[in-house]
Every structure is written in structure tokens, then in C-alpha cells.
């Protein structure tokens, strides 16, 4: 920000405080209807977003940017994904998930059975996604300048095996995160091909980022539910839904309290997307014991115990270990 712009901002802030004190003054005897200009709460003015884009995110909790990641980059991510599935590269910390319908069947799995890669922060080729300058330019509008890549995923949503297990129940990503404040966390989710209702695009409930974190549990779906796919049981089913249909390379940025899920994949192909959750490194960890997030901490502990032989690890320590700085300074997280 230039000096004069900074001074102007200070004057505006000062005037806001002054009018607030006039309104609050018991001696004035008058009722003012004047409202000081509302600060935009969910985004920073870095000069990147247009006023319309900022207002859209404030109101809806997400922002779709068309054509942000090049075909060439997406092709490289796809090839690296295939190499990982063929086990030509192995990496520490990587979680490979298969759809529960496939995992529980007699079917001998090959690379097509991988439904999700998680925690690819140690793979330089895939991790390039998290540091793409055009993505970070947007991320910074929500996190500020110190940016940590906290969680990485490549989702390979399989054609539904007939049990609707390819669905992702409605949830808030904050359920998985023991850090705050939530307003300085954002997800970037890039379509690696055309995504639409037929192959299970994201479904969002616009505006729900203004609410609070809800209790999450396994949905009681007859055909089974994937491990850790917790959902919100009683969200308002009459709330308007939006199906976020996207072209290859389009990227949606969304708030961690936004209620979202994704539908069944009714097509033959595997629907691919790559994503990263970012947080300001100035965020702080919280202890989730005694909160609605205790159930996810217990499950993560169970996996950490089974897979890595670590006992009683706190949820926050698993995140401190996985997070990587991508811009600025690592101040707190
Ligand atoms: C210090 C470092 C500690 C690191 C700790 C790591 C903790 C993981 C944290 C994950 C945090 C998630 C944060 C997400 C935040 C953003 C929001 C995103 C929302 C989500 O997407 S959450 C859903 C993603 N969930 C996961 O990825 C869960 C993690 N996955 C796994 O642990 C394994 O992939 C899984 C599912 C346990 C499979 O392990 P694996 O050992 O490879 O599988 P096996 O073939 O040996 O089967 C074991 C057993 O599990 C059954 N199984 C397999 N796949 C599934 C499945 N998809 N769903 C349910 N059950 C599954 C399988 O049938 C076997 O069962 P048995 O009864 O036969 O024993
Ligand atoms: N009972 C439910 N509990 C939790 N989440 C649900 C539930 N029903 C749907 N959803 C979520 O909302 C998404 C979109 O729902 P939508 O109604 O469009 O499709 P669907 O329920 O998968 O299939 P159908 O077309 O048969 O209704 C689902 O894929 C899932 O993520
Ligand atoms: O289906 C998807 O790609 C989105 C999944 C999702 O919301 C998540 O993993 O948190
Ligand atoms: Fe999610
Ligand atoms: Mg339905």
C-alpha cells in the first residue's frame, strides 16, 4: 500500500471509531441510524480481487476463477499421479485411499482403484501445485502474506460401483483442522478435467461459511461410507444448493466453514481434482479435546498408531509435522 493510501485508511478507521462513540454517547439523546462502513471480514485488500469478487466471497464463502492452471501443469500432475499409483515413486507420509466399495470386495486392485492421494507434500512434482504463483496470489487475499500449505490431496473419484460410496457427504473442512482463526484458512480446488453433476462435481451451500462448526459423524448410508468421510447429519435440506460445474484448470477457493460435498460419479471415467488447504502461518493450534472435533482426533490417533506406531499423538502435532511454508515466514503454525 502506498503512503497516502495508508494515511487515508487510518483516517477512515479513526472516523469509524469516532462515529461509533457518538452513537454510544448517552448525552447526545438522539438516535442515529448512521452505520460505519462495514469492514470486509473474510478477505484482505491486496489489489488482486475486484470489489465484486470480494463481495461474492463475503456473501457466499467461495470464489470460482476460470482457467487458472495450465493444461501443461495439469498433464504433469496427472502423469505423476499415475507414476505413484504404479509405485514407481514412493514417498514418506503419503496416504493412498481406495474406495470402500473396492477395498471391501474381492476385486484385485490396480492403479484405477486409488480414489485419493493425501499428504503429497514430499513429492516435488505434485507439490508444485501448492506453490503456483497464480494460486498464491489469490490465496493471499484470504490468508494474508505468511502462507502455509497444510493439507494436500489429489482426488480420483471413481465411477460409482453401484453403492453410492463415491459420494462425499456434506461437511465443513474445519472439522479436520485444529487451528484458528477459520477466516484465515482457505482451500484451493482445481478441476483436472471437466467436472459436472454427472461425474460428481462439488456441491456447496452458499453462505454457510457465516455459521459455526457443526457436529460431524458418519452418515448412515446403506452402501457403506469411506473412512473419515464424516458428514453433517442435520443440515437444512431446503437450503439452496449450488452445483459447481467447472472446466479443466478452473479453480475454486472456499472457506473452511462452507458446507459442501460431492455427488456420485455416474460416468465411466475417474473424476480428478487437485487441492490444497492453506492457512496463515500466524494461525494458532487449539486443543480439540472436549469439542465436537474429538471424534476425528481419535480416528487420526488410531491411524497414526497403526500406520506409524505412534501413540497418543495430538491432532495438532500431526498438522505441525505435515504443514509446509510456501510464502513469507513461518511465525506460529
Ligand atoms: C505424525 C504423522 C501422523 C500422520 C497421521 C495421519 C493421519 C491421517 C489424517 C487424515 C486427515 C484428513 C484430513 C482431511 C482434511 C481435509 C478435509 C478432507 C476430508 C477428507 O477427505 S477426509 C477423508 C479422507 N480420509 C482418509 O484419507 C483417511 C486416511 N486413509 C487411510 O488411513 C487409509 O487409506 C485407509 C482408509 C485406512 C486404508 O488403509 P490401508 O492400510 O491402505 O488399507 P487396507 O487395504 O490395508 O485395509 C485396512 C482396512 O481398512 C478398510 N478400508 C480400506 N479402505 C477403506 C476406505 N476407503 N474406507 C473404509 N475402510 C477402508 C479395509 O477394508 C480394511 O478393513 P478390514 O475390516 O478388512 O480390516
Ligand atoms: N443423506 C445425506 N446425507 C449427507 N449428505 C448427503 C445426503 N444426501 C446427499 N448428500 C450430499 O449431497 C450431494 C448431492 O446430493 P444430490 O441429492 O444431488 O445427489 P445424491 O443424493 O447423491 O443422489 P440423488 O440424485 O439420488 O439424490 C451428495 O452427493 C452428497 O454429498
Ligand atoms: O469430492 C471432492 O473432490 C471434494 C472432497 C472434499 O470436499 C474433501 O476432500 O474435503
Ligand atoms: Fe471438503
Ligand atoms: Mg439426494
TrEMBL record:
InterPro entries the record matches: PhyH, Phytyl_CoA_dOase-like
EC number: 1.14.11.18
Gene3D superfamilies: q2cbj1_9rhob like domain (2.60.120.620)
Name of the top EC class for this enzyme: oxidoreductase
A Pfam entry, by short name: PhyH
Family: Belongs to the PhyH family.
Protein name from the UniProt record: phytanoyl-CoA dioxygenase
